[in-house]
Amino acid sequence: MASVRCAIWAFDDPRELLGAMADAPDFYFDRMIQIDMDRWSAGRVVLLGDAGYCPSPASGQGTSLALVGAYVLAGELAASGGDHGVAFARYEARRCAATWSGTRSSAAAPPST
């Protein structure tokens, strides 16, 4: 981040910075979007981590949410007696509020479960 700040300060006019970004061979820029899903499972497939609830890269929560999600899912699979449908439903119920708070601002309300 410090190198980005230093690079920005080297330009007196923001248009110079924009021109330099366009000419840089290693500069990449794209928009970020997030798809909100009603559920994280269908049949025998369940999503967790970035595949299911990718937080903003600026949040610093990606790895934490993925590890906790995997831990919760493993526990629910073990406790379900082999019924993946029950395990997935419990996983989604337990993770929804926690994941929502890690991927959204505190002003946003979690989805209904």
TrEMBL record:
Taxonomic source organism: Sorangium atrum
Pfam families linked to this entry: FAD_binding_3 (PF01494)
One term of GO molecular function: monooxygenase activity
InterPro entries, per the entry: FAD-bd, FAD/NAD-bd_sf, FAD_aromatic-hydroxylase
Alphabetical UniProt keywords: Monooxygenase, Oxidoreductase
FAD-binding domain segment(s): 37-100
Protein name, entry field: FAD-dependent monooxygenase
